[in-house]
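Re: beginner question about structure tokens

> Can someone show what the tokenized structure looks like for a real chain? I only ever see the sequence side.

Sure, here's an example I had lying around. Input first:
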Amino acid sequence: MMSAFNRLFAELFKKKSRKVHLLIILQLVSAIALTVFMLVIDSGWFYATDPSKFGDDWLTLTLCFFTISFLFLPIYLIISCSETEKLNRSQTWRLAPVSDVSFYLDNTLSSFVSYIYLGILQLIGTGILFLATLLFNPEFLAAFKKLIPEIQNNAYQFVPSIYRFLCILAMIIILGLLVYLVTNFLNFVSQAVLDFLPGISSKFSINLIRLILIVALIWALAKAWNLISPLTFMNNVGLDEFLGILLLFIIDVVFLMVNTFIFSKFFEAKQNK
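And the corresponding structure tokens:
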């Protein structure tokens, strides 16, 4: 059973990683286009013929690629959520030799891992471009070398910043999973309601049900935050971040359990069109 679960996960991840590779290429092309546009605006059409500023071009490209990452991650999240819902509803994929629970977990986790995979590729791409900047920009390399001893001598001052960065990174990852789970929940519950009320079939009715669910979710999350907020903001180093991550993790687990139950009991696949 576990081997079937792993094979399905690998197949789904392979399918979704194609979009990741396409998106990372599109991100690089967009960064190059933005870099060229900025250089043209800054120095005119004949800037590319000036080799003395070649190193600056790499620095600009690195910054553009890194900045665009914050746009492409949510874009992929939306695309991936849509694809995940289509696969949940696909009769063809539901014929896989695994239980409904296993299929749901495979589909959701493979989407989530592909989201993390995109982030890793973005970091690798940024690192490669940064190394190219060090190679082709002697002035930047010299300034970076001067900065290294200062960082080493004052490393303790950077610990809180590094910790907060890691906490923010963890929150982004957990929030990414929460987006998948909330999208699943809205789709599963609205479809379950429609199945119990067959007379309601218009898109307006579906959207109205989802709007009601969103309002209910916001209310429930606000209540959960009110319960835990007195424990935060206590000026304790790292406590606020830890409790925030813990709260998000608990919410993820609750949604995962609820979605698994609804999917296995009430959510039926539709015929492929």
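Each token stands for a local structural state, so reading them left to right follows the chain. DSSP finds eight helices and no strands in the chain.
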